[in-house]
# Entry
Amino acid sequence: MLPNLIDLLNLNKNELRDFVASLNEPAYRVAQIERWTYGRELVTDFDAMTDLSRDLRARLNESARIGAPRAIAETNSADGLTRKALLQLDDGQTIEAVLMLYPDTPDQVFDRAPRDARRTVCVSTQVGCPIGCPFCATGQAGYRRNLTPGEIVAQVLHFARELKPAPLTNVVIMGMGEPFMKFDVTWQAIESLTDPARFGMGARRITVSTSGEIPGIERLAREQAQINLAVSLHAPDDALRDALVPLNRKYPLRDLMRAARAYVEQTRRRVTFEYALMDRVNDKPEQARALAQMLRGGGAPPPLLCHINLIPLNPTSASPYRRSPDARVSAFEKILRDANIPTTLRVEKGIEIAAGCGQLRQAAVKSRTTDKEEK
Ligand code: SAH
Ligand code: SF4
# Structure
């Protein structure tokens, strides 16, 4: 593949219009190309775009491509409902994307409407992550680079192709990386996913998770786009959160809570807080009470419109943190519920496997090294 071919997935609407115009083609070609690329067909080959002239297809082949990273490793959960793919980008870097199937889940946290099957993809936004949370495989791996909008969208299209004709129902931007470090990139990907002429997914079916990048929360609020917001909290006080989520040193809890409140006021949407339970680190009863107190706003202002997602830690090989035992998890959960904080405990499948994003990459790097050693 020639490196100077334009990846059409990287072009927003205006850029695609300009590109088509630069080929001296009429504007309706934009809709045709978008339909083939993001619609039911999900093609990666211009020759399959049969309503384009032969001459145009030839010129597209000379100047452009549709990015489709190759899966170089895959793991499936024992029940077959979760599949992680390690995708290789053009420059050889690798990222993880995860498909999660929920056959007939009646009530999901991020989208409570459907009683039918959910098919969710979890995508990465960066190769590695500069935030460096010590319990996270991605954070441990260090940071290489940001993804392009096309590389984010390509992860969704990868699984959409595998599932076709069944449609994907949800996207969670919760894989490797901090999605709000480059808000514009993440936002352009979201626009391609929600544009009815492109992938056409409802904004309410998309969730973006941040470690607390306040400017991103503020921008998402301003967009008024019905996208779900999740914030990774993991600690009820600054001293602990400074250690677990180092971005807290820049954006401490008081400011983060203020931003979350402003978000709820501006959007009227509930914020989800993620809290990974780590044995004797952040799972003590007094920490549950402090968390409840913080989310209730100390009693004076109205309680924050929120939801807590408790995730027993997925331990990684390189960190000292352990998963909380069941009894400590239950006790923590009960304190939150008794304080009237809507709380969900994540079971051993689905999103928390995605939450361990970075772990397949860690494992794949290891096993590839082992393979080589064995040869
Ligand atoms: N960087 C963003 C989004 C990706 S991480 C963020 O931090 O929010 C998605 C979620 O998985 C975050 O809540 C993160 O804290 C959590 N996570 C990371 N490693 C985990 C692990 N080993 N076990 C459980 N949750 C983990
Ligand atoms: Fe980055 Fe999120 Fe992992 Fe922290 S938890 S290192 S922010 S990917």
Q: What stands out?
A: The longest strand covers residues 94-102. The pocket of iron/sulfur cluster (ligand 2) is lined by residues 129, 131-133, 136, 138-139, 176-178, 211, 232 (CB under 6 Å). The chain has two domains: 6-65, 70-373. The CA atoms of residues 151 and 361 lie 17 Å apart.
